[in-house]
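quick one, 681 residues, struct below
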Amino acid sequence: MTRQIQLPRGVLPDAIRKIQEGLDELVAQKLVLDQHAIVSMADRDQRITYVNTRFCEVSKYEKAELIGRSYNVLEANHHPQSFFEEMWSTVKGGGVWHGNIKNKAKDGSTYWVKSTITPLFDQDGAVCGSAEMQTDITHQVLAEEAAAKSGAALQEALNELQTQKLVLDDHAIVSMTDRGGNITYVNDHFCEIAKYDRSELIGRNHRVLNSGHHPLGFFKEMWKTIASGNVWHGQIKNRAKDGSYYWVQSTVRPVRDNGGQIIGYASVRTDITEQKAAEQAAANAHDRLALATQASGVVLWDLSPRLGTLELSESFASLFGCKADEVPQDTAGFLHMVHPEDFETARQMIEHLGGGEGNEVNREFRMRGRNSEYLWVRIIGRTIARDHGKLHALGALSDVTAEKEAVRSMSNEKLALERIVTERTRDLEEQAQALSEALRKEQELNEMQRQFVSMASHEFRTPLAIIDSSAQYVARRIDKLKPDAIRENIDTMRGAVRRMTNLMESTLSAAKMDAGKLRMKPADCNIRTLVEEVCQQQQRIAQAHKVSLDVGDLPDVIQGDYAALELVFANLLSNAVKYAPNAPEVSVKGWTEGEFAYVSVADHGIGIDAEDVERLFSRFFRAKSATGIAGTGIGLNLVKRLVDSHGGEITVQSAIGEGSKFTVKLPIKGPSDQAESVEAA
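---
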């Protein structure tokens, strides 16, 4: 509760009483500000003259260790010198500076802050220092001490609070209401995000922003909390004047008069619309993955060998015809479904997975399904270490009953054919050999598919774990997280979603080609613009790399399928970045020779063994040098098939430790009649 100065009647003139009234309002706003921001002040030479308690908590320095020192004490050696020169040049020139800064605390840990620096002016209008807001201010003592002073001390405290209010208005969405909830004050940032003029808000209730998203009980509970004198925290979806929606993280605090009675409410809000969008995108990606696994009949599993706990995807219930509450939750329940003759095989598989990191399994056995019928299943998986070194096994389960029956049938047919060949003619013997070869190729395809499922399950599980970890972290600390910490988690989740999306797009494109549903549609295509846009997109994704672009000698237009060629160059650029983690330079060059356009993508990364180059464009093949780097072996195979469908060629030059250079050759007039008629199958 705000502490009012008690002055003898008649001691201060009316001017002082007006200062007192203004001070009361500013103190109320400051109490809310103290829960949100880190505040400091400095003189004209950037020597710290004031820090609040929150500043000390985050930086882990005592106040005495900071006062009089430069902000260089927090230097994390992350930003170039020009960054700080530009920042202080803006402030010294009388401008307000906004930006993100990475600092280093006393214990060596680093942290990010979103900073607003406002210049302070002396009586002559010259810059005499600066005020910096990073998050909440916990500086109630300063306001109470200022309130205890008379005359000039009151004016000085008022000036300081006014300065902090200016910084608050630049940083947060602020409003105040009377006891009935009618708006009495909004800052500029409130008007900007709500898209209302101040005159359209003052005197009205916050119901003008009601989006209809929250139930009536939500707001009843909020009013019950603040009317009882408590602070309320929560997330609210509002509707702006133009009909658009936005989300805010809101803190509402009661404002009291001198007698301790509630006379109104003050609130500070932070825009979290992007965070909400990222959470929704993550949820959509999870749903798409669930649909994909269910449609394919593949069951993903996650086993904790130490605890014996087991997580199975929703497709398990569909495959085995059981209810959701009948799906096994542990290894004991899983083994109970295994055929008695195969029990030991399944038990040894689980024991092997718990034996150590890197252990792999590929087992087939029978499990009881609907109507007590047994299905043949194939289980592939691998043990990894996560959660502070605890072992987890991840993998996939698929129904191979039809495959087993087909193999058994084919084996019987093979024996019959061999007997017929022995008894009859050489022609029948050749037919039997052809059947054997077909069987061998089918087994090779099954093995490649097994490898793909193993890699894809790992590729999907990793970003899902990242999304889940970031979402849980935000959920647990939502009321304490600073905006930059929230944004950092959002970027992490969006990056994981982007990784899954890219894998799904490559997989689906390859599947469409296999099914003959992906047709090339050559048309006028600005190849130069296409390559430039792909490079720009990759540069935004991989900011640690630098893409050097030289495509001025490419023709303006070629005949080609824009979407297919975009996928070709996006794959090549993505690979150049992924397989050159320690070599940030990627070179893209385009030129024309005769009737052909050429585009090369070169990196200085890990390179490829000479013996692997010939198989580099095979489906699911991955070079030995790529061990330990995420991938499925689909990308380059898809690239070559798309280039071939354009009547073009792709070549590669590479050496271990020296990087790789891929060159795409495309006919300017498009594929020949023969190439155009061929579906990408």
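The chain has 20 helices and 22 strands.
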